[in-house]
Amino acid sequence: MGRRGGQEGAREHGHACGGAPLTAARAGAAPALLFHAVVQRNRRDGAAGRGSGARPDARSTGRWAADRPGPAAWAASVAALTGTAATASPTGSDLDGVRILLTNDDSMQAATASGKDGYGLYEARRALCEAGADVVVVAPWDYQSGASGAVTNSGQVTVEAREELPAGFGGDCGDAPSGGPVYGLCLDAGACTPDSPGARPADTVKFALHGGLDHLVGWEDGPDLVVSGMNGGPNVSSSVNDSGTVGAAIAAIGSGVPAVALSAAGEGHAPASFETYRAGTDYAAALIGDLHQSGYLSSDYVVNVNVPHIADGGEPKGVVWTRVGVGTAALHQYTPDTAAGENTFTIGFGSCPGSEHCQQETREDADIDRLDGGYVTISALTGDRTLVGNEANELRGYVRSGRSER
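Now predict its structure.
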C-alpha cells in the first residue's frame, strides 16, 4: 500500500495496496468508480452499551436495526445515482492484515458526554479491526481541532499508552497482531499528565512514521495506511485548510504513506451524533477495504470522506464525488472583551452567509453543498499547492518576459 517512489514501496509481508493514480476518467465519471460497494453488515449484538451518564447506548442505537433502512439502502442509492449495480462488500476480510496507523485531531480521550473529544476515533478503530486490519492508535493527548498541518520543531514528546479504554470499546482489536494499542502523544517529558499539552495531529503522524511505530510495536517498515478521524465535524470547503484531521493525512502522504481522512457532520452546529459515528465508520471501513482491493490507496493524494448527519432511522441520500469548495465553511470571529483588557478579543465562530467576510461558494460540485444536502462526499486532496491552468500560464509568461497578456 505504501507508494514510496512507486511500487518499490510495496510491502514484503503482502500488505501492499498498490496505488494507481486517480485519472480524470475514473474519478470524474461516477462515484461508483471510486468504490465497488458499501457496507452490508448484520446488526451487531446490542446488549453491550457504550458510555455512561448522558451518553447514549451507541451499540444499540448506532447500528442499523433490522426493521429500518440499513446499509443496503446506501448501495441502492449509489446505483440510483450512477446507473450502475451496487455489489455487496465482503464482511471482515477486505483489510485482512493491513497495518493501519489511526490518528485524529480530537484527541484519544473520549471523556466528554458529547463524544467530541475522540469518540469517533474509537468507532473507527472498531470498524477497521472488524474489517481485518491491524490498527495502532497514536493520537494527540488533548483536543487539537483546527491545528491544520502545524508541527512542533523543538522540545520533547512523550507517548503514553492507554490501559483502560472508553466503555464498550475494550474488547475491540484484541486479536490484532499488534494487540491494537492506543497511545496518546503529549508535549511533555517523562509522562503525560492531565495538564500536559497535546502534540499536533501532524506531530503524531511524523512521530509514528519516523521511528515511533518501530519503537512501540516493532513496525520497522511502518504502516500500510494512515487513517485520520473520524472527526467530530465536517471538513469541507475552507475548513479543509484549517483541519487537523486533514493536516495529519497530508503529513502521511508527505512521508510516502497513503492516507484517508474521515469526518462526520452534526445536525446544524451540534456535534456529530453517535449514530452518525457508528454508521459512518462502518461505511468508511468498507470503502477503505474496497479502495485497497481496487488499488486506489496512494500516497499521491488523500481520500477525504465526509458523512452527513444521520438521524435515528435515517440514512444518507447517496454517495457523490465532489471537489473541495471555495466558499467559507466556518467563519472565525473576534469580539472585543473590554472587561478583560483594552486589546483582548474573544474568539468565536459565525455562520455563512451572514457576514461580509464570508466567501461565496461558486463551484457547482462543491463538497459543502452536497454534504449539506445529505450526501456522503468523497474528494481527493493533495499537498501540492502549485497553481495550474490558464492563470498559472499567464503568470509564468509574465515572469519570463515581463509582458502582461491582460
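The chain is about 25% helix and 15% strand.
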